[in-house]
Amino acid sequence: MKYLSTRGDAARPGFSDILLEGLAPDGGLYLPERYAPVDAATLARWRRLPYAELAFEILALYIDDIPAADLRGLVHATYTEAVFGTRAITPLRRLADEGAPLYVQALSNGPTLAFKDLAMQLLGRLFEYELGRRGEQLNILGATSGDTGSAAEYAMRGKRGITVFMLSPHGRMSAFQQAQMYSLQDPNIHNIAIEGVFDDCQDIVKAVSGDLAFKRRWKIGTVNSINWARVLAQVVYYFAGYFQATQGNDERVSFAVPSGNFGNICAGHVARTMGLPIHRLVLATNENDVLDEFFRTGTYRPRGTAQTHATSSPSMDIGKASNFERFVFDLVGRDSARTRALFGDALARAGGFTLDPGEFARVPDFGFVSGRSTHADRLATIRDLWQRSGTLIDTHTADGLKVARAHRDPGVPMIVLETAQPAKFAATIRAAIGRDPERPAALADLEQRPRRCTVLPADAAEVRRCIEERAP
Ligand SMILES: *Cc1c(COP(=O)(O)O)cnc(C)c1O
């Protein structure tokens, strides 16, 4: 499989070449030249496979430059009961029967209790493999306000050839999130707490990676949400959820997806395009409703950080959805000139765009519907489910459930993707149900563990110096 840029760059790199890169040279995102179609016989065969083998089969359709035996080994080492807590890896829980069954699919049983582990754990092994093959090293520099940074650190810890420098805003993440990251003792993981806010961290990452001489000298890379390998790894659990919710392949299901950067639901779009019988993809936002606005009106109007609200589902506090260009590229018939006009020119010139009516009219063919949820909705949804069934869900999943209920179709099962465990967001859970969420036993003493973290002022020069001192 070769890959193309959504903005029309002429190069056609293979998977291994785009694995360690971010954007395409023309600023576009990489996508496969075509989506691999899955026929009825293949679906029937896949239904019986354990998660890791299903993951291997799906990945192998898009990765032909890693020998199959090696790829299978990497995938099987990733998706184990030891890492994800259950043999099913992403088990379904039935919540209720409201016209048709309503399920929650747990994507949050990995080491950092959020769905990002499902892709990141694989990415860690793919990076280690590819760097080893090339005899190269990589220093990953990132900024985090919570889930992404911890998922990246837990995926990269102890990996050969990889060192991580992760910036986080000093004292501004939840106590759980701070303890989770700062307690890592692995010599290749460096936590840098910046005296500032998340935007300061991001500005420093931009400044350091924008210094091309420094970047080349110290082999600086990233693990951002636009990496195609992350989207691809996420395609797998849509298939796994579908197989658990259905008896045969003539049935359809809908998925509700708590969304921010459009990475998770982009994988659902890929699965549906490959032929998985998905009825609707229900996109849920919180008060930061850029994507809901688009799916209601056809206008995409990204917000700056100043207009992005801090909410109680913080991992969805996103003003600009970095994976959204992939979907629009498909929506406009994979027209790269049109995509470039929208995302390259219109965004830069006017700060947004409105699709032509003919383009927007195609959205239903892609299965997408949307809705938004507020702090009050979140609390009410968590409390109501808890009181009625004793099931506790986190704040992001609550946004998904709230919006899912507005988009039920008779006879079609609905699967709400659980993107985090309630233990990560204890303060809001306490506000909703009046008690603390339970936490996995292995993390009981998390806050008491010794910490390894360097505090630095919000100054790119200091961070550069830190990298020079510690990078191998
Ligand atoms: C990252 C994240 C999201 C948003 O996912 P996107 O892929 O950015 O749309 C939702 N919930 C949780 C808990 C997350 O960590």
Rg of Cα set: 21 Å
Report the bound ligands by name, code or SMILES. Answer: pyridoxal-5'-phosphate
Identify low-pLDDT runs: none
Largest sheet: 6 strands, mixed
**Helix percentage:** 40-55%
The overall average pLDDT, rounded, is: 94
Could you give the order of strands across the largest sheet? 3-4-14-9-10-13
**Percentage of residues in strands:** 15-25%
Number of strands: 15
What is the straight-line distance between the termini?
Answer: 34 Å
- Helix segment tally: 20
What structural class is derived from the secondary structure elements? alpha/beta
CA-based shape: globular
Write up what this structure looks like.
- The chain contains 20 helices and 15 strands.
- The protein is α/β, with parallel strands linked by helices.
- The strands form 4 sheets. It has a 6-stranded mixed β-sheet with strand order 3-4-14-9-10-13, with helices on both faces.
- 47% of the residues are buried.
- The mean pLDDT is 94.
- Pyridoxal-5'-phosphate binds next to helix 12.
